[in-house]
Amino acid sequence: MNNKLKIAFSMADPGGSGYYRMYLPAKHMQLRGLHDARCRHAMTFKELEKFDMFVLQRMHRPDMLEGVLDLKRRCGSVFVYELDDDVWSMIGDNPNREYWTSEVVGDLNNFIGAADAVVVSTEYLKQRVMEETGHNSIYVIPNYVEDVFFPVNDINRNRIRVGWAGGNTHAVDFRETGLSDALRSLKSRYKDRLEIVMFGWCPDELIGIVGYHPPVHPSEYLKKLHSLNLGIGLIPCADNLFNRSKSITKLLEYGIVSIPTIICSAHKPYINLSDDIRMLLFCQDGDWLEYLEILCMDVQGCSREDFGQKERLEDVRKNYLIEDHVYKIADTYQKIYEGAKR
Question: 135 and 175: one domain?
Fold first, then answer.
């Protein structure tokens, strides 16, 4: 790239959002010499002065906005706001809802309005940001995963391992889609032949019948996920406005470590992976028990190769690796900078 930029990515936290949206793009742009991209948690305004462009997450306080505007005036920096959740549609059962009051959301709208550009993870979220803020410079940079090479786990035909990986913001998804009820029923039916694994968080209603694994740092996440040797990965996704803006990151995580997956069909219009029962099963709300039994029987009767995981893994590696898309990401930030400087 002829005109390399100095870009600062200031993560709101080092967790999933900061890792996929900030750390990975910065890491791979830096590795390939596309831009001088640096990423740290909560960088100070003094640190940001050194950069042509700075990207911020989840900032909204008016005093912070004053600092951002002062930085832009003094240094001529380009300011990009990064967002990967539809905070305007966050439902009451989401544990973060208490934080995103109408006043805080109003402050967020002001922060976004001051940005030279907004970067989001999905086309649907782009539309929502336009509707709520009127901003007309919004760019979609999807989430990608890094390529990893793990041996394909053997299937234990005598004991099925069904699992979930994620955080407590999905409590409503477990409850409203009927997944918690289905898992309890399935455990009662299969008893010791079924192991239910919860990685990162466990719904209250499933405590006592699952094996729990605490969260790990994102850099260790895929290694840990692979080590769980899940026969089936679960993605409950209630049909609501908030979830429609969600990216397919969890599908990619399951896919890159060769885990057969069931996802709620409410999410299907917003993703682009193939609907193949031996790779990815779309489940209607309330039908989790039926669909889980289908895959449980398949897991017991098939090898990983028969199950289509080679094709699923190849699909992720062909279409969703950060290593292949970092050039497009770098171009997007170049366009943002040039547009802001016109």
Answer: no
200 pLDDT band, cuts 50/70/90, is: very high
- Whether residues 292 and 178 fall in one domain: yes
Is 187 within the bounds of a domain?
Answer: yes
Facing residues of 140 across strands?
A: 120
**Does residue 44 sit within a domain?**
yes
Q: Residue 53 pairs with which residues in a beta bridge? A: 7, 78
Q: Are 121 and 21 in contact (CB under 8 A)?
A: yes
Q: Is 42 left (phi over 0), alpha (psi -120 to 50) or beta?
A: left
- DSSP secondary structure letters along 231-295: SEEEE---SSHHHHT--SHHHHHHHHTT--EEEEGGGGGG------TTTEEEE-TT-HHHHHHHH
Residue 37: which CATH number?
3.40.50.2000
Q: Which amino acid is at 166?
A: G
Contact 29, 35 (CB under 8 A): yes
Let me know whether 10 and 138 are in one domain. Answer: yes
Q: Are residues 79 and 168 in the same domain?
A: no
Q: Please report how the helices 179-190 and 288-301 are oriented relative to each other, as an axis angle in degrees rounded to 10.
A: 50
Same domain flag for 131 and 275: no
33-92 tens-digit pLDDT: 999 999 999 999 999 999 999 999 999 999 999 999 999 999 999 999 999 999 999 876
Sheet holding 53-57, edge to edge: 36-41, 6-11, 53-57, 78-83, 117-120, 138-140
What total number of domains does the chain contain? Answer: 2
Could you tell me the two tokens for 49?
């002065």
pLDDT for residue 324 is more than 90: yes
Specify if 152 maps to a domain: no
Nearest CA among 28, 16, 22, 15 for reference residue 81 = 22
Say if residue 103 is in the same domain as residue 223. no
Strands 280-283 and 261-264: parallel
Cβ within 8 Å of residue 127, ≥6 positions away? none
Q: Is 232:293 a contact under the CB 8 Å cutoff? A: no
Q: Which positions ≥6 away from 129 have C-beta within 8 Å?
A: 83, 112, 118, 120, 135, 138
- Whole domain around residue 123: which residue ranges? 6-143+323-341
